[in-house]
Design brief:
Low-confidence stretches: none
Radius of gyration: 26 Å
Mean pLDDT: 83
Distance between the termini: 55 Å
Largest sheet: 2 strands, antiparallel
Number of strands: 2
Order of helices and strands: HEEHHH
Shape: elongated
Oligomer: single chain
Length: 97
């Protein structure tokens, strides 16, 4: 569990929940419990989630574009030393004091 950076008891609890709902299969090997995904149980969940893929890809793309535009605008304002309303940064500081 060190590779995951999560304590082993936490991983075991999560795997137990997945086993309880049938998304993984488990078998004992001595003191260990080996888990394997249950593809037949996961398939309907994957298909259902896929119906939203196009929508979320579009929405996330729009959020990314908006954030990049804001960043470019902010950088341009800072580069020429002026704020959004056209005052210099120093003029703005003076007025706010």
């Amino acid at each position: 569990m060190l590779a995951l950076g999560v304590p082993q008891p936490s991983v075991s609890k999560h795997l137990q929940v997945l086993w309880d709902v049938g998304l993984v299969d488990a078998r004992r090997d001595g003191r260990r419990v080996l888990y394997r995904t249950n593809a037949d149980a996961i398939r309907p969940l994957h298909e259902w989630a896929g119906t939203f893929e196009r929508y979320w890809a579009n929405q996330l793309g729009r959020i990314k574009d908006h954030a990049e535009l804001n960043e470019r605008t902010k950088n341009e304002r800072t580069k020429n030393g002026r704020t959004k309303n056209g005052r210099t940064i120093e003029e703005r500081r003076t007025k706010n004091e």
